[in-house]
Prior knowledge:
The chain is an alpha+beta fold. It is built from 11 helices and 12 strands. Helices cover 58% and strands 17% of the residues. A hairpin with an 8-residue loop joins strand 4 and strand 5. The C terminus is likely disordered. Keywords: Kinase, Membrane, Phosphoprotein, Transferase, Transmembrane, Transmembrane helix.
Amino acid sequence: xxxxLSGRFLILSVIFVMLAEILIFVPSIARFREEYxxxxxxxxxxxxxxxxxxxxxxxxxALAQELLDNAGVYNVVLRRDAVSQLVLSSPVPxxxxxxVNLRDPSAFYLIQGALQQLxxxxxxxxxxxxxxxxxxxxxxxxAMPQAPLRxxxxxxxxxxxxxxxxxxxxxxCLLFLAVRSFMVRPxxxxxxxxxxxxxxxxxxxxxIMPKGRIKELRRAEEALAELQTQLTGSLRQKERLxxxxxxxxxxxxDLRNILTTATLLxxxxxxxxxxxxxxxxxxxxxxxxxxxxxxxSTLAFGRAEEAPPTLxxxxxxxxxxxxxxxxxxxxxxxxxxxxEVPIGMVMRADQEQVFRILGNLxxxxxxxxxxxxxxxxxTIRAEEDDSWWxxxxxxxxxxxxxxxxxxxxxxxxxxxxxxxTGLGLVIAADLVRGHGxxxxxxxxxxxxxxxxxxxxxxxxLFDQAAQ
Length: 467
């Protein structure tokens, strides 16, 4: 709690509000002291006027003491026209320890006196001079005990302190909730998105979608989304380059053998008039073609920079028909194509990339069937549940050999056809991962092969975790 942003903000809010309350408390306690003393002067004035209104301006000692007790003072002196008159008097328990002049006092004078009053001992006598009413220049001078004043100031201060604490806690809680709502929760959302992306940086669906309503946070989310997009593309490029690097030795060896054969045949054609040249020419052409195809496939794979998928709602029926129609144009009469996709089924994906995925799978199946010289069928099926879209590509071909199954999604090693590079399945699997899904070999045997592409409908809801 203390180490969190919201917790520290809560503590700082309480401290700052308390500091503000202290700045308010000092003049407040000075004002309270001034009003307290003025009230005593007013009561003393009333008591003195009562005496002056009596016959011979004399009252009994009992009445005089009652008037002094009611005013809370020891004596009352009236000063008018430079003449002082002791109106009421009683024994003073000790010497005067503090003098307060309330005739036009400054704010600094009142604040200084109030602080000294709080820090001074409770015992003592205060002399107070003031003019509660501006009548004929009359001034009242009284002596009063210090203990009741100090006790009243302490009580007032404690009440102010309690009120300040309540205000501080309420203000801090409101600020805490506001900061948590407008700052902490959006920051947590960004952090959870970063953690989600870090767990699968190839999954473009984990790239953050900027939703912040605060300008600065939204700009941060947009910058993070751009960075993640670039990083995803870079990771794919580097993965391909790494695979390309690991295959360089094998490619060099195979290419050297192919070109060596072609070179020998070319030398023979140049040196001899032998009729066997006619038989050697096709071999030379085939050797060179394989070398060219291998080089072109390798270079194309190394240059590939797949962009993150652009996710839209795709009508799967029409997309599958386009894929099958493209393969029908390239196929022989041995292969028949079928679609078993529910009418109206839609999925969230990149239409062009899904076309390439299905195109690679169907093309591999078609070439495998044509290589056997026997009739065969290729079928695309689709289904969905609450969590996944699944597309199955099934064929009745000869099945995959054990070596191809072991290196199915490894570049240059998972090829089935003679001279094949195996890049089709690698590219298809890469595109599926970019959607956050999986491409799996469901089954393969002499009766046929089935691949399943699974795309998730949702990923972990990190927005809810941040809340």
